[in-house]
């Protein structure tokens, strides 16, 4: 498979490439080089690469190009297994989006006051990052709708399954449009991930990055 190595080889907006350079991202990591061309074409991707390989920017750059910043609706949802990981993803997305002044990223996790989150949801965020239980709670209570969702990301999908979140994840997916792009990222690629991919994705491109260790 042919892969590009530089972000400037992708047809990204100039301000985005400048921002990546300012973040010190001179070259794409292998998972970014392998997945971004398909992600930017709107395809479903299931990708496995070890921790620390730059998976957040792989889907993050994709999200930022799929979103219409002028439309104040939730267009992307990233599900993460833990609050700590959701906070890290939100932080990285905000860094990646520094060139988009009006982009709003909202983090919704358990263990945080519900009332405050409901107040935040009064002004829709373009991107919501959260844990499955709390996102399901907000959907059930009618605080959040995902009718305008364009991209769904299941991050650390192997850990979400290990932690027993598959019912919550499936319920959330049932509330999203079938025309969505679904990106599934995982540090490992057990058979459960393959099954999940078959259930929630359409003709996904499968990318496995072998690690040297
Ligand atoms: P993963 O989700 O695969 O565990 P992360 O997305 O958390 O990995 O990225 C790990 C680290 O690599 C982060 O500190 C991130 O800022 C950095 N990083 C991501 N992409 C690049 C890149 N192209 N060049 C340099 N550093 C990068
Ligand atoms: Mg990650």
UniProtKB/TrEMBL annotation:
It comes from Pragia fontium. Residues 5-33 form the DEAD-box RNA helicase Q domain. This is ATP-dependent RNA helicase DbpA. The chain holds residues 1 to 213 of 461 of the full protein. A motif (Q motif) lies at residues 5-33. The lineage of its organism: Bacteria, Pseudomonadati, Pseudomonadota, Gammaproteobacteria, Enterobacterales. Belongs to the DEAD box helicase family. It comes from the Bacteria. The gene is dbpA. Residues 36-207 form the Helicase ATP-binding domain.
